Amino acid sequence: MTSIASSLRQLDQLADRIRLHRQLRPDPIVIVEGPTDKLVLKEHIVASQIFPASNKNCVLATLVTLSEWGDRGAIGIVDTDFDDPSKLEDFADQLYPYNSRDLEAMLIELGTLAMVLEHQGSEQKLARFGGAEKLIQLLIDAVASVTALRYANARNNWGLAFDKVKLADKFDRNTLQLKVENYCAAISRASESDADTKSIYEAALSDAPDDLGPRGRDVLEAAGVALRKVAGSLKVESTSESVLTSQLHSSAGLALSRSDWLIGLKDRLHSLQ
Fold first, then answer.
1. Which of 52, 73, 89, 221 has the most CB atoms at less than 10 Å from its CB?
2. How far apart are CA 37 and CA 173, in angstroms?
3. How far apart are the first and last CA of the chain?
4. C-alpha angle 63/213/35, rounded to 5°?
5. For residues 203 and 150, what is the distance between their CA atoms, to the nearest angstrom?
6. What's the predicted TM-score (pTM) here?
7. How far apart, in whole angstroms, are the C-alpha atoms of residue 143 and residue 213?
8. pLDDT digits (tens, 9 = 90+) for 74-123
9. Greatest Cα pair distance in the chain
10. 118-137 b/e with 16+ CB inside 10 Å = b?
11. Closest by Cα among 217, 243, 225 to 170
């Protein structure tokens, strides 16, 4: 089955499952991008039913289908990513995006990554940076070029193959600075894109595109590099982006429960009852 056919099938199943649920229970519906979002949120919004989709486009398409059926009692929770804001304007009253760029970036902003670093890193090494929060700001600054490049890629439809280049390998292990020229050259070689290396490099050096900050997983890649040397002495396998992402998600409960974002979500859901 092609990916397009699979996505359409999943959309039909999701909308149908929500319609069936509506016949049994009147509680508010929350549609999220995937199972991980449900795991993070389910203990905080127990009065609502959470339905995971396969991606953001499936969330949006499901909201359209439900609206066509006369059901506007669902809220979609999505990452903002690097999308053009106008893409989501038609869904303004049906969406409740995460703060910052995505779920992981929001949890970092709420202080969850600082807690992970304090548990996983060396107290002495973290103190050299002025503590975990100061180190995180350094990591955010270090991936600024990646943020700018992702933004330019989305706006220009370059189709750059970010997933084919391991970001963690492009940091200086002692200073945690990104080797921008090296990274851009690797992205250029890995991509079948009309953008040449010079254009990619210039985009990476451009000013911050907006105030949403970096993609959370890019910061986690940098955090893994830090934990292997300058903030700790852990092994590669215990500091990969996927491992740190799981730790971030599983450690988020208290910070999320106290967040203004969650208060706002509960207010939105209460208005649907």
1. 221
2. 32
3. 39
4. 40
5. 9
6. 0.93
7. 10
8. 999 999 999 988 888 888 889 999 999 999 999 999 999 999 999 999 99
9. 59
10. eebbeeebbeebeebeebbe
11. 225
